[in-house]
Each structure stands twice: as structure tokens, then as C-alpha cells.
TrEMBL record:
Domain of life from the UniProt record: Bacteria
Residue stretches making up the Histidine kinase domain: 216-415
This enzyme's EC code(s): 2.7.13.3
Alphabetized UniProt keyword annotations: Kinase, Membrane, Phosphoprotein, Transferase, Transmembrane, Transmembrane helix
GO molecular function, one term: kinase activity
UniProt-recorded name of the protein: histidine kinase
Catalytic activity: ATP + protein L-histidine = ADP + protein N-phospho-L-histidine
Native source species: Mariniflexile jejuense
Top EC group: transferase
Keyword Transmembrane helix recorded: yes
Gene3D superfamilies from the UniProt entry: 1.10.287.130, Histidine kinase-like ATPase, C-terminal domain
Amino acid sequence: MAKKIKLIKKTSKTFLLTGLVLTILSTGILYYYTKHLLQQEIDEILYSTEARVVNAIKTNNQLFSLPPIVEIRKAEIIQPQVFKDTVIFDPSQKEMELFRELTTFKHINNQIYQVTVRDFVVENDQILIAIVTSTITVFILAFFFLFYFNTAKNLKLWSPFFNNLEQMKRFSLTSNQSIELEDSDILEFSELNKEIRTLTNKVKTDYENLKQFTENVSHEIQTPLAIIQAKIDTFINDGSISDKQFQDISSIQKDIQRLKLLNQKITLITKVDNHQFDNLEIVNLTSLISKKIESFKEISTNSIYFDSEQDIVVSMDAYLADILINNLISNAIKYNSRKEAIIIITNKKSLIISNAGDRELLNPEKLFLRFYTETNNKHSIGLGLTIVKKICDLYNFKVNYSFKEQKHFFQLIFK
């Protein structure tokens, strides 16, 4: 998955890269264009000087030179004119200097002359550097000004969006308060707010309807089950039934108990999914485990070994904490194949429960799915570990399963 970055940072990064590319390109173009203009200007000066020299020779019929600026020599043949940059010694400066040189051949008064005129290039380069430097400085100052102005403007522009995003993060289906969105004069933000309000209102309505439906179904199922249970108890207490009828009625009674348990667990899963357990309190899981072990010792023949290095203290609903520990221990007891001791180990950040097993699960990745079971245990409805996983997901606990040394291991990691 690609790394996520903030919107302002993303747009600012794009602005910086675009500005950098434009600055480099514009600087390069400015440099070469200015250099071209300066070189054209030097060439025009050389042409003008050359014209004056030729005119002076025609008029006065005299040869003169002013090294290294003007040099005139007689030649045998006419050759093409030549422009070039050359480094020669300048007597006035007493050092080597860079010159732009024009060499032409002219036929004047029945004689061919080689006319060479030169002009300084060093000063032109200094002018070029000064122009480019000053332009770059202006570009950089303007660029940073526009960058910070653009960032501040964008922050103000996107402020309603960011505020509404925080409101959406705090939105809760269980809260009676409607979502409060900041209005904006930007059409797209205004339309987004309208759609968010419509969506959240519909979600809350659907949630309330689903919640009401679940509660009604749970309540309505419990009533006829209780009536059926009462009638069955009456039949059982009536001594006129045969042994065969007693067995059939006892089987029906077990199915009713199973149906009642199934209804309770499905209702619990639905409430956990709907985040209806929002009563947070500090729960000492180590103390809770000790109490649960004592309770299970009264109804189970399995021995339980408990070792705690440090108390586990978490913030969660106390009722869900009780169900979490109860399901883990009861699952270990139910599937402890060789009746070996069940081992429970805790430290500050984790809880490990292990029980003996004959073989590794065929599909451990399906272990926490609803109604999944790999045994023929009639007393299991396949929801105990599903509830464990739901509770762990609700509080960002991590639950892992592994099988090693002929033992099943369940580990809870608390953040």
C-alpha cells in the first residue's frame, strides 16, 4: 500500500516541484537568450568598427593599427569573414583577456587588406551574470512568497473540509446527537456536506431499525421458549409419561436450551458489532481470571494451572471482559482431549491459554468464523471463539491461534 500523505503537503510538494522546474527552465532560457543578445550586440559593434576602419583606409589611404583592438594587414587573396572568441595579451591590462574577434578581407584601392577588429567579452559576461543572478533572486523571492501565500490560502480554503472530517471521525451511531458540519461558500464542499448529512441520517435510521429488530426478535423468541420450557417441565413432572416419552421430551428440552443459548450469543454478537457496549472502565483481567478458574473448578474435573507475572489491566466493558475470559477458558476445557492440565500464563501485555489436543486444526484460518467447528461436539454451537474475536476487534486486542507440542495455544496481545 502506498504511503499516505496530507492533502496540503501533497499540493505544496507539487507546487514546489513545479516551481523548481520552471525556475531552472526559465533561468536556462534567460541565460542563453541574454547571452545571445549580448553577443549580437558585440557583433554589431565589431561590424561598425570594421566599417569605420575600411572607410578610413579608403579616404586616407593609410594603414594604421591599435592592437589588440584593431589590426590591419595586406593580404594576397580574399577569404571568408570569421567570427570567433579568442584569448590574447592586452598590453593595457598586462594580462590575457577574452575578446570577440571579427576578421574580414576587403579590396580597397586595388589592394586586398585583412581587417581584424576585437572587443572585450569579459565585461559582457559580468553583465550577463549580474542579469541572471538578479533575475534568479527575484524568482526565488517571488516563488517563496507565493508558496507561503498559497499554503496559507489553501489551509484557509480547506479548513471547512478538515473540520468536517474531524466531525465525521467523532461521529457515532450510538450517539443521539446529529453530526455538526461547518458550512462553506464553496459549492463542492456544500454539496459534500449535504450528501454526508443525508448518508449519516440514513445510516442512523437503518441502525436504529436494525437494533430495534434485533431486540424485538430476541425478546419475542425468549417468551415462547419459556412457555415451551414450562410445559415440558409439567410433562416431565407428570408421572404418567413413559420412558420413551421422557427421553423424547428431555431431547426437546436440550434443543430448547441450545436455541436459547444460540439466541443470546447472536444477540451479543450483534450488539458488539453495533458498538452498543460503550461503558469503559478499568478491568483487572488477572483478578478476573482467578475468579473464573475458581468457578470452573466447581463444575469441571479439569485441572487448571495459572501463572501470572504481572497484572493485566485494560480499559473495556466489564461485561464483555467477563465473557471474553469465560469463553476462552470454557473453550480450553471443552476441547482438552487428554484431560491434561490447562495452562494459563499472563504478563503485562499478553494472555496465553493452552490445552491438550490430538491433532492440528485442518482450517485454522476459519477458527473464528461463525458456526465453524471441526468437531462433532453437540454442545458446541460454533460462536464462542467468534465472540472472542469480535470483542478483541472492538478493543484492538490481537488474538492468535497456534498448535505445537500436541497443544492448542490461544494468545491475546493487549495494546
